[in-house]
Design brief:
- The chain has one domain (15-66).
- Helix content is 69%, strand content 0%.
- The protein contains three helices and no strands.
- It has helices spanning 15-29, 31-39, 44-66.
- The radius of gyration is 18 Å and the shape is flat.
Length: 68
């Protein structure tokens, strides 16, 4: 069962600004990412593969930053 979170935004007069704020909060909370994970089934092998690729990329970027 997914965790339920309450997100509140106070709207004064500027609706556009309120929409931007709620989009930022939803992004920070990772709600969209969670929803996508629950909608699309990803086999464990795919998850491991993605995790490994992410680790390789991060190590590569760290090496570039250190100048190796």
């Amino acid at each position: 069962m997914a965790n339920r979170r309450n997100i509140s935004i106070f709207v004064n007069h500027n609706l556009e600004r309120a929409l931007k704020q709620i989009k930022k909060k939803i992004e920070r909370e990772g709600i969209v990412k969670e929803m996508k994970k629950s909608v699309y089934y990803e086999p464990p092998t795919q998850k491991r593969r993605k995790r490994r690729l992410r680790a390789v990329k991060q190590n590569y970027l760290r090496m570039l930053q250190r100048g190796l």
